[in-house]
Amino acid sequence: MAKLSDLRDAIDQKLLVRAMAAHSPLSALLAEEAGFDALWASGFELSALYGLADVSLISMTQHLDMVRAMGEQSSLPIIADIDTGFGNAINVIYAIEQYERAGAAAVVIEDKTFPKVTSLVADGRQDLLRLEEFQGKIRAAIATRSDPNFLIIARTEALIAGLGEEEALKRAAAYEAAGADMILVHSKQKTPDEVESFVRAWSGKAPVAIVPTAYPEMNEERIKTLGKIAIVIYGNHAIRASVTAMKDVFARILKDGGIHNVNRDIVSVEEVFRLQKMDQVKADEKRFLA
Ligand code: SPV
Ligand code: MG
Description:
Blueprint: H1 4-12, E1 17-22, H2 25-34, E2 38-41, H3 43-49, H4 60-73, E3 78-81, H5 89-102, E4 106-110, H6 131-144, E5 151-156, H7 164-177, E6 182-185, H8 193-201, E7 208-210, H9 220-226, E8 229-234, H10 237-256, H11 269-275, H12 278-288
Parallel strand pairs: 1-2, 1-8, 2-3, 3-4, 4-5, 5-6, 6-7, 7-8
Helix pairs in contact: 2-4, 4-5, 5-6, 6-7
Protein name: Phosphonopyruvate hydrolase
EC number: 3.11.1.3
Pfam family, one: PEP_mutase
């Protein structure tokens, strides 16, 4: 498991941390093998894995189990998406204790009311918490963590809620004042303009994290040119890649009347054995099975 300071160090060195969404230990392992710097333990992805909407239906226990299991398969720092923190500041206290103990390197808490509605849906009900109440949740998180390298990232949904840049900047500044280590600003505009404008106007010290799902032309080169952005989260590309692959293969098997064609286009069983560390099982069998 990654040292808690790894993520903090990368951010302090002004490296752009590339976090890939994951919804399972296997996707975490694949993200690490691909070369990503961190994992985004996405609420959206885990909800989708269960065929559920991302509207606070998945419990903290389910999400924590995923985070723990990811940590067993990957040494990358895990940025845990804890939505609204599962309730008020009292719930946040318990959540922070649990996620720190589970081995997460950071949590992202968003300023929506509980239960939340997923951010990117058209015409979603996006109600924000009173600024002072969310500051209390950030203060509770900071007061609860036992290691200062466990990052508390405050996420403002002001742009998602259509409240505009001024409100987003006001909230970001208030959350930094409450102790947040970083600010995640989310937008569902189809172009990077809204987020770029926010980042240019942001005068706080806290670095920024973004999730450019809705505005994919915001590539890493463009992010680096803008500066101030420390983490880019590829928010749902693991689950979308799985859905794409499964839909394609399932349809082809039915169309072809068998598995004879798809067989050459999917990974071999041996590759899955490798991911399962079957060699180790064989070696252990030789050693220990009399
Ligand atoms: C998630 O991946 O769960 C996120 C990012 O919070 S988004 O779905 O775009 O809100
Ligand atoms: Mg989420």
